[in-house]
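REVIEWER CHECKLIST
Item 1: Sequence provided? yes
Item 2: Single chain? yes
Item 3: Sequence as submitted:
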Amino acid sequence: MKRWISTAAITALVWTGTGWSVPAASAAANPFSDVAVGHWAEKHVVKLALQGIILGSEGKFRPGDSIRREDAVIVALKFMGLADGVDTSSSIAFPSTFQVDDYAKPYVMEAFKRKLLVPDEEYELANQEKGKHWGKTNASREWVAKLL
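Item 4: Structure as written out by the authors:
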C-alpha cells in the first residue's frame, strides 16, 4: 500500500509539473528589438510573430508605423489561415492605375477571389488617388475593417 501511495504521489507531481518550474508562455523570445518588455501589446505581437502572421523587418516591428494596404492583405490572409494556398509563382497583371508590389500581387488576387476585397471598389479607390501606389498607401482603419 505504501508503495502504491508513493507511486501515485510521484506520478501526480510529474503530471502537474510541481517538481520543477516551467517557463511561462509569456516568456517566449521577443523577436523585435523595438517592442519593449512589458509593453501592453508585447504578448500579442510576440504571439503573432511566433505564428508567422507578422514578420517585421530587420528585427523590428515598428509599432508606431502605419500598415500599408498590401501588407494588411497579407496579414489578414495569414491570420485567417488562407495564405498557404496562395500561388506565388504565377505572374499577375492589374490595371496600370492599380499598383501593387510584385511580392503582394498573389495575395491581393487571393483577397479578390475570396471576396475580402471587391476589385471594382479597389480599382476605383486607386483611380481616386491618382499618383499614389495603391499597395504602398497606408491602410485606414475603415479600410482594414472592411477587409476583415
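Item 5: Key structural point noted by reviewer: The CA atoms of residues 48 and 54 lie 6 Å apart.
Item 6: Recommendation: ____
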